[in-house]
Amino acid sequence: MLINKDEFSLIKENKVCLIKNFVSLENEYDFNFISKLIEENNLIVGSKSTIGNLRDILQIYKVSNCLKQFKTFFDFLRKMFKYSFDERDEVDLFLSFTSQVGNAHVDTEDVFILGLKGNSIYRVYDIKNKDYQINKGDLIFIPRGIKHKVISLTPRINASIGFHGKRLYE
Length: 170
Hints:
The chain has about 170 residues and is α+β, with helices and mostly antiparallel strands. It has helices at about 5-10, 30-40, 70-80; strands spanning about 15-20, 45, 55-60, 90-95, 100, 110-115, 120-125, 130-135, 140, 145-150, 155-165. The model has no long low-confidence stretch (mean pLDDT about 90).
């Protein structure tokens, strides 16, 4: 996991930050992997849209304890940025089987989004609107309160690592 000094500073200052090639992923995160993960761990799956078929954006809740690698990402980011404990902190997976555009929204937590499969654009409505493309192994940090939406260019799987707690150095 690689974060350089400039990227660390941007995140510490609560600024959107894209980190290309944050991690080299060992596992192949595909839809067979997702199916097995859900089945073996009895995970909850929700829909983030109202289409009602395979064009929905799906969210798989609370996967941090399902795989060592997810727990490692979660622990690394919590320690690196000194987040206080909050029971709502978690890793969720988001996936879509087709190219898809999500609704613009604002999160109540800081989110670190890690590309696991496919290509996505995160459109951030900050001081100026900006698009950030993430691919497998890339990480984007979006601070709480910043409006954004995802545009999946391909079928995709992303891990969203969310921290509700305050940072201890704030």
